[in-house]
Write a structure and sequence with these properties.
Length: 280
């Protein structure tokens, strides 16, 4: 009798449903976050537009944003922009993929085998602290001025962030988890594949994102020095011919490519890590 008079607690499913955010409220929250996140960009573009028009800066050297957009559209319609974009994406993505494919296994091996780490760490430290751009003449002398040298130096520069983050991530995997799995008879390559690699994924993806930014940076540098196509060539050629709006259009395209590349890597990180990576 007493139990019938006591208020019944809601079931776990009902409580979860009550705590779940409503779709309308969630949509409003996402829109608010998007508006706040884009406010800085909007303010920057507004200042860029009005500063030359009000005479704060010389229009010759910093044209209004709308004029840059007009120049960008002209490059896009003529097809020149897409040809340069294809050339740059091929070089950047090829070097980036080579770096990731080489650096992740190498990092896992160095982190796992202490003798190997002791043998190669001094040499790796020397290469890490040598700027990739400083080695550009060496790559050109050995591989020529064509595509091979550009891809090679992009791969070289992108290799180090992935390598060192892979080493750090593999060494920071929970040792108790490693010992527990070892006690079940899992060792060697299977242990690296089943335990070390999944545990190190968040840190590895941090290195991959850094490598993505590095590949774009080094790409533009190599194209500024010696290239007949590419976004870096577009920027350099526009500067030499005093086509300032076209130059800024190329710079905006580089920024857009970097942003899209970053978002793709963030999406891949979230999917591959299966919820291990917190939402950004």
């Amino acid at each position: 009798m007493v139990s019938t008079l006591l208020p019944r607690r809601p079931a776990a499913r009902e409580r979860a449903a009550a705590e779940r955010p409503r779709p309308a409220r969630s949509a409003v929250h996402r829109l608010r976050r998007a508006a706040v996140g884009s406010s800085g960009i909007v303010v920057f573009l507004l200042v860029w537009q009005i500063a030359p028009q009000l005479g704060w800066v010389d229009k010759t050297f910093l044209p209004p944003f709308t004029q840059v957009l007009h120049a960008w559209w002209g490059l896009a319609v003529s097809g020149e922009l897409w040809a340069d974009l294809r050339a740059s994406l091929f070089r950047s993505l090829t070097g980036f993929v080579i770096a990731v494919v080489a650096a992740v296994p190498a990092g896992l091996l160095i982190a796992w085998y202490r003798t190997l780490a002791d043998a190669v760490t001094p040499l790796l430290t020397i290469f890490l602290n040598t700027a990739a751009v400083a080695l550009l003449p060496v790559f050109v002398l050995i591989l020529g001025i064509g595509e091979t040298s550009k891809i090679a130096i992009i791969a070289y520069a992108s290799f180090w962030p992935v390598l060192y983050n892979t080493i750090s991530g593999a060494r920071n995997v929970d040792p108790l988890l490693v010992r527990s799995v070892r006690s079940l008879g899992v060792t060697g390559p299977r242990l690296l594949q089943k335990v070390i690699l999944p545990g190190a994924l968040p840190t590895i993806f941090t290195g991959i994102r850094l490598a993505g930014a590095t590949s774009i940076l080094v790409l533009i540098t190599t194209e500024l020095v010696g290239a007949k196509a590419g976004l870096g060539y577009l920027i350099s050629n526009a500067q030499y011919n005093f086509q300032i709006p076209q130059m800024f259009a190329g710079i905006l395209t580089v920024a857009a490519v970097g942003l899209v590349f970053y978002q793709i890597l963030i999406t891949a990180e979230r999917r591959v890590s299966h919820g291990q990576v917190p939402s950004r």
